[in-house]
Amino acid sequence: MKAVFHAKNKIKAAIVLLVMMLLLLGHHVIQNMRFTDVDASVNSIYNDRLMPATYLFRMSNHMYQVRLLLENNKISETDLAKQLEAHDQHINQLINNYETTYLTQEETKAWQLFKENLALYRQVRAATEKEAEADAYFAAVMDHLRELNKIQEGEGYAIHQDIQGTLQGAQMESSFEVIIAMVFGVMALILIRMPDKPFLKAVPKGSSLN
């Protein structure tokens, strides 16, 4: 009966350890799924931060090209109108591209101000009698583009830090869980292979421990 009792206890202990090992391995699988979220964050850095920063840079370049055209006294009015239209179309396309990306609340506000000042600048840029007004709108447009770039940098850095924290935590947890799972597995095997004998032999009646 004692052998049966000890055998049952060993089997129960082994089952408990195996269940704990399976739970840890299951959690390990879940941890690996977190890397999918990290991948999404990496894509967000590219699609919602890197590419928009590129769009902003290109818009700034087109704005300066427009400024140079307006300061060129040798260009004809017809050529000036054509080239201004070409730059406007490029900027409009970049605006459309930018608006397909994710915009934070702060970014949305700065973006709206940029578009408003851009529209006002286009209305007065060719009027020589409104040169001062055009200069003011141009400066406002460029200020908003710089502000948007700073927002991009801040958001990109925040995402990067979040990814780094997630990866470091996941790697540490993953390594620890695998080690614990292996320990439980070894303990379970030891219990299963252990002889069905009590750890301490019964002392015969009337005998002394001394």
Summarize the model shown.
This protein is mostly helical and 210 residues long. The chain is rod-shaped and about 100 Å long.
Would you write up a description of this structure?
By secondary structure, the protein is an all-alpha fold. The protein has one domain: Up-down Bundle (f41 fragment of flagellin, N-terminal domain), CATH 1.20.1330. It has four helices and no strands. The radius of gyration is 35 Å and the shape is rod-shaped. The two termini are 30 Å apart. Residues 199-203 have low confidence and may be disordered.
Draw up the topology in text.
Elements: H1 2-71, H2 77-98, H3 105-124, H4 131-193
Helix pairs in contact: 1-2, 1-4, 3-4
- The secondary structure category is mainly alpha
Main sheet summary: none
Question: Within the CATH hierarchy, at the fold level, what is the topology?
Answer: f41 fragment of flagellin, N-terminal domain
**How much of the residues is beta strand, in percent?**
under 5%
Helix percentage: over 70%
Order of helices and strands: HHHH
The number of helices is 4
In the CATH hierarchy, what is the class?
A: Mainly Alpha
Tell me the span between the first and last alpha carbons.
30 Å
Q: Radius of gyration over alpha carbons? A: 35 Å
Choose one word for the global shape. Answer: rod-shaped
